């Protein structure tokens, strides 16, 4: 199912949080990973606004030392978002 993209993004961000040298980035990455994990397992799909906020947060983290992982997670969120109806 398409929510696998959200679960994949969550796992990727958890790995990035463990790999980064930046404590603030690690905290933000962990928080985003938790949010995506919750969205992947809840009963209904998240709306575009929620996903856009997550994408913006990921964009802010793309200049960290784990940029490749952040980009991979971002791509997974975009792939899921393309399946959400509306907007």
Automatic annotation (TrEMBL):
Residues 1-25 are annotated as: Disordered. Residues 1-10 have a biased composition (Polar residues). This is Uncharacterized protein.
């Amino acid at each position: 199912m398409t929510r696998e993209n959200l679960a994949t993004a969550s796992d990727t961000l958890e790995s990035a949080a463990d790999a980064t040298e930046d404590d603030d980035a690690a905290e933000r990455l962990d928080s985003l990973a938790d949010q995506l994990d919750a969205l992947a397992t809840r009963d209904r799909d998240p709306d575009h606004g929620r996903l856009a906020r997550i994408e913006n947060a990921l964009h802010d983290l793309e200049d960290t030392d784990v940029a490749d992982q952040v980009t991979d997670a971002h791509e997974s969120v975009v792939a899921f978002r393309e399946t959400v109806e509306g907007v």
